[in-house]
Amino acid sequence: MTALSVSHISKSFGSKLAVDDLSFSVAEGETFGFLGGNGAGKTTSLRMMLDIIPPDRGEIRVLGRPAARENATQIGFLPEERGLYRNMTALDTLIYFGRLKGLSGTDARSRGLALLERFGLSGEARKNIASFSKGMAQKVQIATALINRPRLLMLDEPFSGLDPINQALLEDEILRASREGAAVLFSTHIMQHAERLCDRLLILVKGRKRFEGTLSEALAGVSGNVTLSCRADPTALADVAEAHIAVSEHASDPEWKPWSVALKPGRTAADLLETCTREGFALRSFELPRPTLHDAFIAIAGTTSASGPEYPA
Amino acid sequence: MKIPRLNWRHVLLVASRDFRQTLRTRSFWLTVFLMPMLPVVGGLAGSRLAGDSEREKIVVIDPDGHMEPRLAAALHRVAPDIDVTPAPEALTKLQTEALDDAFRSYIAPPREDPHPPKGYVIAVPRNFPNDVHVRIWVSHNPGHTIITTINDVMSTGMRDAAMTQAGLSPAEAARINALEPTLSTRMPKHGLSDATLAKIAPTALAYILMLAVIMSAQWLLQAMVEERSGKLLEALLACITPDELLCGKLIATLEALVVLFAAWIGAGLLAAAILCPHLGLSFTQIVAPLTSLRMLIGAPFFLLTGSAALALICLAIGAQCETLREAQGMMMPVIFVLMLPVQMLLQMQVAGTATQAVAFARWVPIWTPFLDLPALSTQADWSIFAQGGLLLGFCILEAVVLTRVFRHALLRNDTGSKWGSLVAALLGQKDRAL
């Protein structure tokens, strides 16, 4: 079942177009990465999905219903700007947010206690947030998003500002929520987390969708440089667009030099290897480094003309 | 005009949290308990200070010894605590010119005594009343009563002597000197008319409202800024609407004000019960106006609507600001503009002056509760109903307009002029900085 469906939404603030004709959907049990640089429109899109601000155009459906504040009972949300009431205890904070999300007082209390125990804070349940370390407060913030066992978990830049322990904790919670059937959507500009967690991802550039698909689909469109170890200059080969000598700490034999080779558009590493074999071009090594999501993001977000690589959308 | 639909469960949850938060603050309890204590502490301190100032000492130099007993008796009649003593014999022998030097050290207060007595030296000339030059040295600005009494005693002495020399017997002279009319003065008890006594408690309610509004502004700004500066707004707004948040905060404020009103009115009644007998006032007469049906219905109505009208302004201003200091800076001129006329109008109403201006001001909703509370018993029914209705309508209109301001401000993240942003929101311009 589709947990979140966004269809052709747009939003402007004055003359500034923040989100432009955005469409995508997230299925239950799926982890969906919402990627983009600063000012790409991620937070505005999330606010529209939460009904904090309305879209100018388009439609948003959450768990089959139009986007509305009533859906908050099914949604867990961790905003980018996070804070807590400093003079409330951790447990009271969780009970308050749980009740705002439709839980009864008893359910909110038992769920809050369970979460605090899971996060190693059961001994601090009745202490004021003001006495907490930053890391402890971050755990409580994460718990407020999970208090109502959400069917749709929306996280805005969830890893920014978290210490490494809480980053790992949040990754575990995202995977747990996904395993339990919740749809997880998180915005980020840190690619390593998206690479580890996402089933699918969307890249937003200046309010417009530039890519939507799986990680392997994102990487497929990225051609990384081939590294060769050879005696002759590979620039003369037909498949090579440009080549330069790469810096290597292991170049023991000055006769064999490491070269970083960029291929011509449409040519693959296999084509280059075949050309080398056919033309008797002597090689000592032939390496094809695996491109990362970061490479894919740079390639996609950095492409501004239609002449760039084609990506499925 | 679209009336927002509210989820009352959310509203009451916000109200309950905010109310409990206010109850946990020290400043709230200081306000509740300290304010009623101030008049008592002030009164005690005043009487203590007044007691210190009454230490007075008078030395009388009377070489012939005729006038000193009469002076002492007369001065004790007007100031029972005064210490009147005859001068040491050595002083009486000094020449008049030498007395200036002798008394300089007597009159100058000793440095080691922080509360020196106030001193007088009265030198009655030898052969009084043949010599009528009475000299008085004073260490301070002399009291009018003391000087008048000295003058009366010395004048009486001169007239006695003159009449005796004219051939009257001393007893006859004394009788003539003692002649005086019997004055019968009729005035209202304690100078306060029944109508004035009936105004005391209702006017006190108006002042309580004024103080409560000023005091509660601080908690409201604190509550509003806490969420904005604590970066809680977005997490809250994912669950509830801005209207529900505003409404919850307003209810929490009114709850806190009810506690405050109850404490202050209770303390006022207790103080009146204790002090009235000492002041010769009738407690029943003062409290009676509060027990009329008009007051029992009208006072809570005007206290609550008046508080709400001003609390909404505080909330809208608090929502514009990132820090408490910034909010206080914005709130100060607003409080000044709203409350200064109230203070002046209340004084005019109590004094019974500028009745036209006060009657007009009653129709200005923001001032209505302050001016109607003291006049609930005396105004016409239609006038109270109309002004109450106008105030209620103003509160509703204010809620709708200020909700727009509140919504506009909540997710604003620009750094421009707060007043400019407030005016833009009031004019219905769209936020360009979300």
UniProtKB/TrEMBL annotation, chain A:
GO terms for molecular function: ATP binding; ATP hydrolysis activity. InterPro entries: AAA+_ATPase (IPR003593), ABC_transporter-like_ATP-bd (IPR003439), ABC_transporter-like_CS (IPR017871), ABC_transporter_ATP-binding (IPR050763), P-loop_NTPase (IPR027417). Residues 4-231 form the ABC transporter domain. It holds the Pfam family ABC_tran. The keyword Transferase does not apply. Keywords: ATP-binding, Nodulation, Nucleotide-binding, Transport. Belongs to the ABC transporter superfamily. This is ATP-binding cassette domain-containing protein. It comes from Brytella acorum. The lineage of its organism: Bacteria, Pseudomonadati, Pseudomonadota, Alphaproteobacteria, Acetobacterales.
TrEMBL record, chain B:
The chain crosses the membrane at residues 27-46, 200-221, 256-275, 295-319, 331-364, 384-402. GO terms for cellular component: membrane. One of its GO terms (molecular function) is ABC-type transporter activity. It is found in: Membrane. Residues 26-397 form the ABC-2 type transporter transmembrane domain. InterPro entries: ABC2_TM. It is a multi-pass membrane protein. PANTHER family: ABC TRANSPORTER PERMEASE (PTHR43471). This is ABC transporter permease.
